[in-house]
């Protein structure tokens, strides 16, 4: 009977991964991460900018209610909602805000207004959204770049 004299090595030298196998694995992980990280960052940004849309819509409703009571959006200068009855919300600093600051300005002798949400934290920084008395939505800054979009941009630079 014939028996082979070659034996398989065992122990630490016979098990494990070669350097090439490890390098291939690292390269695959790097490629997956290079695709996944930007997608995740966009996902986080989209979640944070929803705060602006919610609060701008809420402020628009409040401003219309204010107009029904006062027949203007603000009687003094360019300040919105100057009536003492609006003092609970007229500072445009909603509770629970995290990523945006809000401001409002009137024009046309108190017959028009624009509420602005400016990104101030997180991935929302570099985004500016507005809404006016006609319900016109606009994006003036998106991902730090100046744009003139007649909508609230969330994913791309076109409406």
Structure commentary:
The structure is a single chain. By secondary structure, the protein is an alpha+beta fold. The protein has one domain (20-149). Helices cover 33% and strands 20% of the residues. The protein contains one helix and five strands, in the order H-E-E-E-E-E. The protein has one helix spanning 19-70, and strands at 100-107, 112-119, 128-132, 137-142, 145-149. It has a five-stranded antiparallel β-sheet, covered by helices on one side. A hairpin with a 4-residue loop joins strand 3 and strand 4.
Provide a quick synopsis of the model:
The protein has 159 residues and is α+β, with helices and mostly antiparallel strands. 33% of the residues lie in helices and 20% in strands.
SSE layout and pairings?
Blueprint lengths: L18 H52 L29 E8 L4 E8 L8 E5 L4 E6 L2 E5 L10
Antiparallel strand pairs: 1-2, 2-3, 3-4, 4-5
Derived from helix and strand composition plus strand pairing, the structural class reads alpha+beta
Q: Regarding quaternary structure, how should these chains be classified?
A: single chain
Output the number of helix runs: 1
User: Which sequence of strands runs across the widest sheet?
Assistant: 1-2-3-4-5
Features of the shown structure:
33% helix; 1 helix; five-stranded antiparallel beta sheet; elongated; 159 residues; 20% strand; alpha+beta
């Amino acid at each position: 009977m014939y028996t082979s004299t070659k034996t398989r090595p065992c122990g630490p030298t016979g098990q494990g991964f070669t350097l090439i196998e490890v390098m291939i694995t690292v390269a695959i992980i790097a490629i997956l991460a290079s695709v996944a990280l930007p997608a995740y960052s966009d996902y986080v940004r989209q979640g944070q900018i929803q705060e602006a849309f919610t609060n701008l819509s809420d402020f628009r409703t409040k401003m219309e209610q204010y107009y029904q009571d006062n027949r203007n959006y603000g009687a003094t200068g360019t300040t919105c909602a100057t009536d003492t009855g609006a003092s609970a919300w007229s500072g445009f600093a909603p509770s629970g805000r995290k990523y945006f600051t809000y401001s409002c300005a009137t024009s046309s002798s108190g017959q028009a207004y624009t509420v602005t949400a400016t990104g101030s934290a997180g991935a929302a920084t570099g985004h500016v959204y507005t809404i006016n008395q006609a319900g016109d939505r606009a994006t003036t800054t998106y991902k730090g770049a100046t744009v003139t979009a007649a909508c609230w941009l969330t994913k791309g630079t076109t409406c």
